[in-house]
């Protein structure tokens, strides 16, 4: 069998709309796991990585030489890199197969397939290898898991959805050989989350079954990444790292003798087991990214968060008292959130001593119910699509009913000012004040993008709001239908909504 030439591409952010949060990572791990798995299954293949996050460009690679080009993107990356996608189309050799995966391909396969032959709509390692095997042996692709494509009749096909068992996969450090100095090395230790928050797209990608790597495998993977990159700070991308306490204890034990630092994602109830929090802290877990979302009970209930709102503040304060830094996305844009509510939430973040709140606008993809039978709270016509800020939550991406999008964006921007003012009044510890200062600087880097977005929104929203700022919904809906009605009819012919087996598998 001939040896394969494969290029993997991570599309990057738009220059005008960077991800300015202190957490911005220098690579997303998904495509690295896919590339590593393919390399392992095809040891003779030449697998290369083009990382646009750190300035590499597809045109720097011999595009005409590849048999397969694999592309990973969030929505914002996709719409910020149309030129790069077109260039790949022009420069690749005829017969080269383009496969797109990651969140955008998963939730908007109809867009990904404009530039790709295949889109992967969930976990990607096994489907990529299944697909390459099928294509290399001239077999049909109908049995490949998690695959979307356009068939010979021009219809969108969605294959069966598969959720996998334990993950036996590690990032191959060679893909990070050209990495610049990393401030975080991104890795995953587990996949899946058993909760079912209404807005969560993460579980649609990686499933609700919590699966782990062995602690020993994780240590081997991290040691190899450290050796390659010199980076001893790890961003653990697990959806809900603390799902199983025994696993956390094992990880804590395994990394006791290493000088590594970690940030992991968890839920606010992690504060209830301070013994475990401190055990993990002794092994370097000093920061968490929590899905706090709000202090407002009606917002938490609307999201099916299943947390006790009256406990939020107390739990967050316990983290601060134990010198654990908390990052959290705080969601705005619901009908119950007017300007005073936004300001009150921003102030509360400081009072609950969250260190890095990221104020965001709830965003969703259209057609999720139609395509997959999945829940969608923001209706199709209220979603602002096809722009570089699409689903970059720092930038408003919906038409709220009760205020103009530009006002909401202004509310997001002003929230940072309100937060920092109160946080500096409250925070006395020098180390925590220094962190706040550094966070304030990184937020400042995002200001120009938000101001630019406000101007864009002011133009876009003009026809759709009354003088008092209420959405003229029938007009907006009529315009959406005129623009996207044909697409919706086409998607409806492939709809999985009534395929109960698919819907059940997708929700698992
Ligand atoms: C951890 C996380 C973060 C972390 C770290 C991100 C990172 N890895 O660098 C932080 C907090 C920094 C973050 C920030 C942001 N994030 Co984030 N994040 C996640 C989360 C929860 C997990 C991502 C992850 O790494 N998972 C583990 C890996 C193994 O999974 P994966 O990346 O999905 O990859 C698998 C498949 O998607 C697929 N796959 C991926 N690429 C490819 C390519 C090919 C060719 C194939 C075949 C398959 C394939 O195979 C992989 C392995 O099975 C996801 C939700 C999710 N994915 O479940 C959101 C998510 C990716 N983030 C999201 C967003 C919007 C952002 C921000 C833009 C937020 C903002 N500031 O506005 C930034 C962007 C930062 C960035 N560097 O991209 C959205 C994306 C929305 C969208 N549709 O585009 C998601 C989906 C959240 C959500 N809605 O649930 N994020
Ligand atoms: S706890 Fe987090 S990962 Fe789990 S369903 Fe809710 S938002 Fe998604």
Automatic annotation (TrEMBL):
Its cofactor is [4Fe-4S] cluster. Residues 179-394 form the Radical SAM core domain. InterPro entries: BchE-like (IPR051198), Cobalamin-bd (IPR006158), Elp3/MiaA/NifB-like_rSAM (IPR006638), Methyltransferase_Class_B (IPR034466), rSAM (IPR007197), rSAM_horseshoe (IPR023404), rSAM_sf (IPR058240). It comes from the Bacteria. SUPFAM superfamilies: Radical SAM enzymes (SSF102114). Pfam families: B12-binding (PF02310), Radical_SAM (PF04055). Gene3D superfamilies: Cobalamin-binding domain, tm_1862 like domain. Keywords: Iron, Iron-sulfur, Metal-binding, Methyltransferase, S-adenosyl-L-methionine, Transferase. GO terms for molecular function: 4 iron, 4 sulfur cluster binding; catalytic activity; cobalamin binding; metal ion binding. This is Radical SAM protein. It comes from Streptomyces daliensis.
